[in-house]
Amino acid sequence: MKKSLVGAFSAVLLLGTAAVPATALDASGASAAPRAKAVDFAGTVALSNCSGSVVRVPDSQPTDPALVLSNGHCLESGFPGPGEVVVDQPSSRTFTLLDSSAGDVATLRASKIAYGTMTDTDVSLYELTSTYEQIESSYGIKALELSADHPTQGTAISVVSGYWKKTYNCSVDGFAYNLKEGEWTWKDSVRYTSDCQTIGGTSGSPVLDRATGKVVAVNNTGNEDGGRCTDNNPCEVDESGNVTVREGINYAQQTYGIVPCVGTGNKIDLSAPGCALPKP
């Protein structure tokens, strides 16, 4: 998983976060999606070693405790092993909340890790001590909404990194049936077109559909050196077991499957109808 801070540590030492400017959607992005909603940094967060975002599902209520979405490999407890699922574990982790222009506006705090895994997907969900209502009234920031729909090939997307305060614009190139990296295998991963050259520290960034502004995936990895199915060099494995290596191409994990698993009060319910997230 090159998209965590570990993969960019030397770059941080040499450049510092301020050396990487925030970017906005360009004219080509606007022409590709004439009705695209403005994509900015509002609702994204910076973690100690990754990126993330404050998210809600369509049925979340203003008084629900807010959720922060990131990667399973960004958990403070380290990478979950294959088959490992973390549920309802206490956490006091903090997140720096950004406004639309990438300014730091608040420090949010977790009450627990609601869910985390690197099996089939690479996702973590933290429950915060603040509600959506409290965050919006105090800082004017609304949560990003998780789309309940599978993304489609060709969709114009933006990967918005709260850690680097940088936006990457590209399109969904396609989907990997299985994406294998070292010990881990992820299913139906989003493959970016080559424009999204995400770097270490962008792990956990929300991937936004530029037409709707909704979150369709969470950024997690890429093939750095052309290696075959090794750490930092994921490979694609099709239904027949054929392996394809795409050096320099980056990937994300879809998030529509999270929506059925979030129940009343924003509680994770792995037994809910339609919920297919891995269980402990």
- Total strand segments: 16
Q: State the strand order across the main sheet.
A: 1-2-3-7-6-5
Largest sheet: 6 strands, antiparallel, barrel
User: Which of globular, elongated, flat, extended, rod-shaped describes the shape?
Assistant: globular
Q: Count structural domains.
A: 1
Estimate percent helicity: under 10%
CATH architecture: Beta Barrel
Strand content: 35-45%
Count of separate DSSP helical elements? 3
CATH topology: Thrombin, subunit H
Unreliable parts: 6-34
Structural class: mainly beta
Give the CA-CA distance, first to last residue.
22 Å
Characterization of this structure:
- The chain has one domain: Thrombin, subunit H, CATH 2.40.10.
- The chain contains 3 helices and 16 strands.
- The chain has 280 residues and is mostly beta strands.
- The longest helix has 8 residues, at 132-139.
- It has a 6-stranded antiparallel β-barrel.
- 8% of the residues lie in helices and 37% in strands.
- It has helices spanning 9-15, 27-32, 132-139, and strands at residues 44-46, 51-56, 65-70, 85-90, 94-98, 104-117, 123-131, 144-145, 156-161, 166-181, 184-192, 206-209, 215-222, 235-237, 243-244, 250-254.
- Residues 6-34 have low confidence and may be disordered.
